[in-house]
Write a structure and sequence with these properties.
It is built from 3 helices and 2 strands. The protein is mostly helical. Strand 1 and strand 2 form a beta hairpin. Helix 2 packs across helix 3.
Amino acid sequence: MKKIVKEFGDFVARGNVMDLAVGVIVGGAFGKIVTSLVDDILMPILGVILGGIDFSGLTVTVGGANIAYGRFVQNVVDFVIVAFCIFLMVKAINKFMEKGKQALAAADKQKAEAAQAAEQEQAAAMKSLEEEEVELLRQIRDSLQK
């Protein structure tokens, strides 16, 4: 039992599970907003455009069954709006992520260029030092020959 509780605790503590929980909660609240937008704003306007039709009351009776297809139309509009909003959010997030990747690539390139410049500067300093050593050795040789 302790092992199951520990595994469950590890599972809940993972970042993805917490992100999912937040997403579900925010999604539920967003769903209410979209439903209100559709029911209270869009569908009445659409009803006026289509000649005063109230979609929520559209029903058809087949046999003894009452089929409320107006609610189905409203739910389809809800879905389309939610799907479009999610599409826009995903598109914005992808654009943001791409800009982040480009910024990281630019920073990496700048670091590489700085490292290359430092290496070149160090190589030039070593070459200058070697030339000084060679000149000093020549002077010592010449002094010894005299």
